[in-house]
Specification:
The complex is a heterodimer of chains A (about 220) and B (about 220). Chain A is mainly alpha-helical. Chain A has a single domain (about 5-220), classed as MetI-like (MetI-like fold), CATH 1.10.3720.10. Helices cover about 75% and strands about 0% of the residues of chain A. Chain A contains ten helices and no strands. The longest helix of chain A is centred in the N-terminal third of the chain and has 33 residues, at about 10-40. Chain B has helices at about 45-50, 75-80, 95-105, 110-120, 140-150, 170-185, and strands at about 5-15, 20-30, 35, 60-65, 65-70, 80-85, 155-160, 190-195, 205-210, 215. Chain B has one domain (about 5-215): 3-Layer(aba) Sandwich (Rossmann fold), CATH 3.40.50. Chain B contains six helices and ten strands; from the N terminus they run βββαββαβαααβαβββ. The longest helix of chain B is centred in the last third of the chain and has 17 residues, at about 170-185. In chain B, α3 (about 95-105) crosses α4 (about 110-120) and α3 packs parallel to α5 (about 140-150). Chain B has a six-stranded mixed beta sheet with strand order 6-7-8-3-9-10, sandwiched between helices. Chain B has a four-stranded antiparallel beta sheet with strand order 2-1-4-5. Classes of the chains: A mainly alpha (about 220), B alpha/beta (about 220). The interface of A and B includes residues 117, 125, 126, 139 and 220 of A.
Amino acid sequence: MVSSFFNAELYQIVWTSVTIAFYSVIVSGIFGILIAFIIDNTHGIVNKTGRAILNSLMAIPTVVIGLLVYSAISRSGIFGGFSLLYSPLAIIIGQTVLVIPVISSVLLSGFSGVDIRLSETLKTLGANGFTYIVAYLYETKIIIATALLTGFARVVGEVGISMMLGGNIRYYTRTMTTSIALETNKGDFKTSLSLALILICIALTINFLVHFLIHDKKEIGTL
Amino acid sequence: MSDIVYSIENLLIQSGKTSILTIENLNFKAQQIHLIAGPNGSGKTTLMKAMNNLIRVKKDCIFYKGKDITINNEIVRNNSVYVHQNPYPLKGSVYYNISYGLKLRKISEEIIQTKVDEILYMLNIKDLKNKTAYTLSAGELQKCALARAIVLDCEVFFFDEPVSSVDIKSVDCIKETMQYLVYERKKTVIYTTHQSLSTENLYDNIIRLDTGRIVK
């Protein structure tokens, strides 16, 4: 099993997984922050409906999202002309759709715990529009980091979207999860276990960081 | 004779069906110290936040120099500032906190440094300049928040119980600062207290509130 850790292809697979997850989280982070910020600044029925929709979207299975995106980017789909299917970009699109509700929900939950005095202080000191948003996001950057890390942990471990939209193409779209599925089917448990170990390490590191950030957030009184 | 800086007409603020504040008519003259007194829950903070446009109110209820504040938010922002009873420290140093509002007003860094140093000296908190704001004690944070507001040089200052968490020496310093703002700099100060009026002697005008209404 140790020898499988010195396999260059294994690191290429890890690199592909992490890079795709990174871009997915960045893109979904932009949309997620926007959605969370808008819903957080609404009141009454709009706020409740927005939260309910986000929570419902989190329950959609990854293969369903994979199927929907597949139907949109396959040859006969509305974006078929862009030849996106079985490319890293296809996985990024699918993972972005998957993780936007996750990031938005974590952000909304964090924003609702932020002291009302922050908003009032920024407003009374003269922040408005863009300056208000920038200052608010800066002050809540730990919540944002926590949401992004949660999103990263979600996408780096998913298999349905990567398999359906990426196609598990060697040296191109093969990720840790699709590779584990493939190698297990082939009976190569050494490689599967090595990848699983790396995946566990990444997941644990992210969870540790999230835990650390949440602890820090409590210390400075934003919860 | 002083001009009217804030005027309130038929103001009604409700939380659900419960009335929090009901004021039929109230005027605040410029260049005076106005004290809003009353017990906890009497509507002092709500009134000040409403006047600073931090709480939504109906149109044509609160006027700043004759202009409805609900449609003139920018005028309110440029001319008044509110300080919480328990101020919120922005992430960063005391210097960052005090300079934040000036940076929003696009004032040059040189002038900002001069203004911040002046206000730190005035409130006797020079030593706190580079301290992280959220490590300050309640009293230090109160003075930092006052400095953050005063440095903006607004026309009207709303101070919510400004001396509630500071020591006796600092109480004198804050009261002297309020007098300086009004009588030297020709500003208007509106502040609240829930303490006995026998201990409060710093005001030109007093408004007594109880259960959301003005009492004689």
